[in-house]
Design brief:
alpha+beta; Helicase, Ruva Protein, domain 3; 4-stranded antiparallel beta sheet; 8 helices; DNA-binding
DNA sequence: TGATATGTTATCTT
DNA sequence: CAAGATAACATATC
């Protein structure tokens, strides 16, 4: 699924095309994707216009014309949000059946706008969800997320506090959204590689110097990935149905069994850590 | 057939 | 109670 850079790419794209668009009708083809009742969802959205599109961690937050009301969407593993209409053409023919034609069998929620354009919420595995909530509820949900890794609040000292006393693996702590918001399996592996740390090591055994290195690695990999509009491994596409370009810049994720690009010596290992697979170079990551 | 998958969270265990 | 580990969600692909 989309991690922070992918969700941020979608956010920017959608804000550009959706701001000011008025929802004419919501088509709910699979009710389970909606939280808080299908009827209420449709009723709260009908006639509303979209304002700013924000992001917290991997959660998208759409401000609605009726202040105090927000549309929240989480894409989880395989969710896609694709906008089609007006001059925008939905991508096709690049081998992604899910965006070749819209709607398709995975288009579970469709937002139709008054100008004839539409936003498709596709999700093969149906883990994602959408909800309309009031301001208090939105704030409550958002407050459960940890520090934004690209914000000024995320400092080496803050990372040190997060890791302190944690006996779990580095990977499972970095994946914990209530501590740092937005990292997923790909970028945890990549940031660990940049820092020369094994994702499988204990989180509380990092020197100050290594913490600083890890902090820099996290920020660098996220910024570079955003610049390349995210990483497409299987399912991720941006709001126009296009793949992200960061996949070819990955150093360890998905490279198990291949030679390390940095030391040209180690063979990338893939093991379990924190319930997920973790890839690293046994030669450059201590 | 069985393992694996970019995420989250409820539940079990320690 | 807290921290950590694991199962579960639904589906596709290798």
């Amino acid at each position: 699924m989309p991690e922070l850079p992918e969700v941020e790419t979608i956010r920017r794209d959608l804000q550009r095309v959706l701001r000011g668009k008025k929802i004419a009708r919501v088509q709910l083809r699979k009710k389970k994707l909606v939280r808080g009742g299908a009827r209420a969802f449709e009723r709260r959205l009908a006639g509303q216009s979209i304002g700013a599109v924000k992001r917290r961690g991997k959660l998208l937050i759409f401000s609605l014309g009726d202040k105090k009301q927000y549309l929240l969407m989480h894409l989880k593993m395989t969710g896609q949000l694709i906008y089609a209409g007006g001059q925008e053409t939905v991508a096709g023919g690049h081998g992604y059946p899910s965006v070749d034609k819209l709607p398709n069998k995975y288009s579970h929620v469709i937002f139709h706008f008054t100008d004839g354009s539409a936003l498709y919420f596709n999700d093969m595995r149906q883990f994602g969800h959408a909800a309309v909530v009031d301001e208090d509820e939105m704030k409550r949900i958002v407050s459960g997320y940890g520090v934004e890794p690209l914000s000024r609040l995320f400092t080496p000292a803050r990372l040190g506090e997060i890791l302190r006393g944690r006996q779990a693996t580095l990977k499972s702590v970095l994946l914990d959204q209530s501590k740092i918001a937005g990292l997923g399996s790909i970028y945890v592996d990549e940031a660990s590689f940049l820092a020369g740390l094994r994702p499988t090591q204990r989180a509380d055994r990092l020197s100050k110097k290594k913490i600083k290195k890890l902090h820099g690695g996290i920020r660098q990999v996220l910024q570079r990935a955003i610049k390349h509009r995210g990483t497409t491994f299987n399912d991720y596409v941006d709001a126009r149905g296009r793949r992200g370009g960061f996949a070819r810049l990955l150093k360890v994720y998905g490279r198990g069994g291949q030679r390390c690009l940095r030391c040209k010596k180690g063979i990338i290992e893939r093991v379990k850590a924190g319930g997920r697979s973790a890839s690293f170079c046994p030669n450059c990551q201590v």
